[in-house]
Design goal:
The chain has one domain: Alkaline Phosphatase, subunit A. It starts with a helix and ends with a helix. Helices cover about 30% and strands about 15% of the residues. Helix 2 packs across helix 12 and helix 8 packs parallel to helix 12. It is built from 16 helices and 23 strands. By secondary structure, it is α/β, with parallel strands linked by helices.
Length: about 525
């Protein structure tokens, strides 16, 4: 390069330096607080999932933003749901159908996760708790990562984690994760004299003793620890004057089993006053579900059956379990409130997008099922609340169907993130659509996304990953259509049957509607 070339390029370098300086300083780009719960269904205030849910902090957040009434998981089980929402790629496109580790998936591992894309756009990134299902320090490279998933507190018998001995059999035979519930005040093996017995936290390998004397003298639950860490991290960001915006992801495990929570949250739901879910006898009789799923081996039905066998009266057992679930929902609401209040009490309030959601829902006995991983409403429907200062309309409700696949493109849009979301040619582009227009005008039906939300459930290892052998559902504002790998179908009219009690698939009056749904599913999935 000669001197004349250098002089001609000099203004460009000044401009480039100015642009980069503005980019790195944030240029008033919004901060993001992303909160995701585990197994949280519609049992929150404002969604009418349960009339006795007590979630004042979630309610307050919803009143400051937009609450999406028809938001759904794209794969209602932990691992594939999180792999999908964090990469913005549908399970049927990535092949990440179930619990295989995402690092072994060629599409997922070669696509940027949300927090990686924020990092590459100059954001400070911090995370804690269960954000991914299969966590990895590799995916947090260059970011602050406090903790991974910890489902504690667990009951501990001095040698191993077990169900709390207060839980009756055979439900307790389901083990220390699924088969245990109750307040922390019900200390396992109390006064037994067994060394180290009591409550412990920790992952699948580690057992970290958790002190419990009484409600005021005890150790933290993992969710409480992650909430307190997040509050302190927000204070650190306030004291950090580098000008860069932040992206913070906090994953709470409750109300995932075991359903253990501080006593005060159980006290919010007195057992003798708890209303149990409204169930229909033989609700699965008009579905093909147990034709293609062995009743005895099916986990969700096993949980239901064991709870039924553990109490003289099934309603009593379901009431105890419902109380524990509601208590855990109230407990996670308390921790969500801590973080949101920390944002609102800081200088970040007017420039921080807050998103609250769950990876999927949870059955509470509907269709003889207690778990997730079905294509019915209880398993697929999730909370989804967005507060985007200057964009979202406060105290609004949106009934347009959206799903977790829309999270990533929405954040790209709202935060003006630049660059490819693929790491290389083996990755994939985002599948979803930005919901910005729904935040601005929640009542509009005109947005860039499809009218039907797509979800799927794994068809099993014998399907060898074939798209046409998986199970799918399309959910419009009015209908839910289900197609199983066997080709059998279900159809529900949500305007008349919000409980999905009457399968209309065999009704000739709906033949044209079924034909339309089949065509739409074939187009969406490519089968």
């Amino acid at each position: 390069m000669n001197m004349n070339d250098s002089r001609q390029c000099f203004p460009f370098f000044i401009l480039l330096n100015f642009v980069l300086s503005g980019f790195l300083s944030g240029m008033d780009r919004p901060n993001v607080l992303f909160v995701i719960c585990d197994d949280l269904n519609d049992y929150i205030e404002g969604m009418d999932g349960h009339p006795q849910s007590k979630t004042p902090n979630i309610k307050t957040l919803a009143e400051s933003g937009v609450q999406f009434q028809n938001a759904f998981s794209n794969n209602p089980v932990c691992a594939p749901s999180r792999a999908s929402l964090l990469t913005g790629i549908y399970p049927h496109n990535s092949g990440q159908y179930f619990f295989d580790k995402w690092e072994k998936n060629k599409v997922i591992s070669n696509s940027k996760m949300i927090h990686e894309h924020f990092r590459d756009n100059g954001y400070k990134v911090a995370g804690a708790g269960k954000v991914l299902h299969h966590d990895s320090e590799k995916v947090w490279k260059g970011m602050e990562h406090f903790s991974s998933a910890d489902y504690g507190p667990f009951a501990y018998d001095g040698k191993k984690k077990v169900a709390n001995p207060s839980v009756p059999r055979p439900f307790s035979d389901l083990g220390h994760v699924v088969g245990s519930y109750g307040p922390l005040s019900n200390v396992p093996f109390k006064d037994s004299g067994i060394k180290n017995a009591g409550w412990v936290n920790g992952d699948w390998k580690n057992n970290n003793p958790m002190k419990y004397v009484d409600e005021k003298n005890r150790g933290f639950t993992p969710d409480e620890s992650n909430a307190d860490w997040a509050v302190n991290k927000i204070k650190d960001f306030e004291n950090d004057n580098d000008g860069r915006p932040f992206f913070m992801a906090i994953g709470f495990v409750r109300p995932h089993t075991p359903l253990h929570a501080p006593k005060k949250f159980f006290d919010l739901h007195p057992l003798d006053q708890v209303e149990i879910p409204l169930l229909k006898e033989d609700d699965v009789a008009d579905t093909p579900y147990f034709k293609i799923n062995d009743r005895k081996k099916n986990k969700g039905h096993k949980h239901y059956r064991y709870l039924k066998e553990s109490y003289p009266n099934f309603e009593d057992g379901l009431r105890v379990f419902t109380q524990a679930y509601l208590a855990c929902v109230s407990a996670v609401d308390h921790n969500i409130g801590k973080i949101v209040q920390a944002i609102d009490n800081s200088r970040f309030k007017k420039n921080t997008i807050i998103i609250l959601t769950s990876d999927h829902g949870w059955h509470m006995g509907e269709k003889e099922y207690i778990a997730k991983n079905t294509l019915w409403e209880e398993s697929c429907r999730i909370p989804f609340i967005v507060r985007a200062p200057g964009i979202s309309r406060a105290a609004s409700v949106c009934t347009t169907p959206i799903s977790l696949i829309d999270l990533y493109p929405t954040l790209v849009d709202l935060c003006d993130l630049q660059g490819d979301t693929k790491k290389n040619s083996k990755g994939m582009n985002l599948d979803g659509n930005s919901i910005r227009s729904l935040l601005i005008q929640p009542s509009t039906k005109d947005w860039s996304g499809p009218k039907e939300v797509l979800s799927m459930v794994y068809g099993g290892p014998n399907t060898k990953g074939q798209k046409d052998l998986q199970n799918y559902t399309l959910r419009s504002e009015k209908y839910r259509y289900i197609r199983y790998k066997s080709g059998e179908e279900e159809l529900y009219d949500h305007e008349k049957d919000s409980n999905e009690w009457e399968n209309l698939a065999s009704n000739p009056e709906h033949a044209l509607l079924l034909k339309d749904f089949r065509a739409k599913l074939a187009e969406r999935v490519g089968i």
